[in-house]
Amino acid sequence: MDESLTSRQLTKCDECRFGAHIEWSELETSEVELLNTTRRTRSHRRGGTIFNQDDEPQGIYCVSGGYVLLWRIDAFGNETAFGLVGPAELIGYRSYFAEDRHAATARALTDCQVCLVPSRTMRRLLDGSPALVRRFLRTLARDPGPSDGLLLRAHQVPIRVRLVSLLLILRDRFGVRGPDDSVEFNLPLARQDIAALVGARAETVTRTIKELEDDGIAIFHGRHVDVPHLDQLYEIVGIDEPV
Predict the structure, then answer these.
(1) Hey, what CATH class is 151-237 in?
(2) Each residue's pLDDT tens digit, 19-59
(3) Same topology for domains 4-143 and 151-237, yes or no?
(4) Could you report the per-residue pLDDT of 87-127, keeping only the tens digit for each?
């Protein structure tokens, strides 16, 4: 069965609710119209592939809905997730600007919508918009790459620390802060996805989750997580909670 649901134009880029938060906000009206008429929007089912590792880049992808996981296969054939991308974020731009094959595979973690801005359109936009070039330079300069993933998969780091680090990384995306020091998560992550992100077996993750629950640090109800005291998460990873 085809992994994509549709291939059609959805909301125009200048009407996208994320427009002010992504690079395209730098474009003039005529440039936005070029973007609208040449981009390709596709809806992917959960588990569908947006692009594969070692594929030639076809342009730059913009996630307009849902979440995408980035995976990499190492020289030993091990497949490990290292990044989570959500609405108003771009993927594939590092390979595009490097003029190199994709260093990872992008898969739909949830049902999602992704827009592809083709290479030919990107060249025209970049040639005509110094503001867009500057915006992408800032994006590239601030992009840490797979640094969070490297931490999460570092086997010398205890699995408890890796799992808590993942919760803190996802807190800004999914966490809802309570009136006290509590926080709640509704994560689009199955146990096997969590295991892949922290580089551990699913049974090891299950055991660690049980330990966190026994210690009253985090309570997992399926994909819903309750953290009674956020400062305990920061204490486990050994850093101070941001003010």
Answers:
(1) mainly alpha
(2) 556 888 888 889 989 998 999 999 999 889 999 999 999 99
(3) no
(4) 888 999 999 999 999 988 999 988 999 999 999 999 999 99
Q: Which CATH architecture has domain 4-143?
A: Sandwich (2.60)
Long-range contacts of 67-70 (CB under 8 A, 24+ apart): 67/108, 67/109, 67/110, 67/112, 67/188, 68/106, 68/107, 68/108, 68/109, 68/112, 68/114, 69/106, 69/107, 69/108, 69/109, 69/193, 69/196, 69/197, 70/104, 70/105, 70/106, 70/146
> Taking the domains of the chain in order of start, what are their residue ranges?
4-143, 151-237
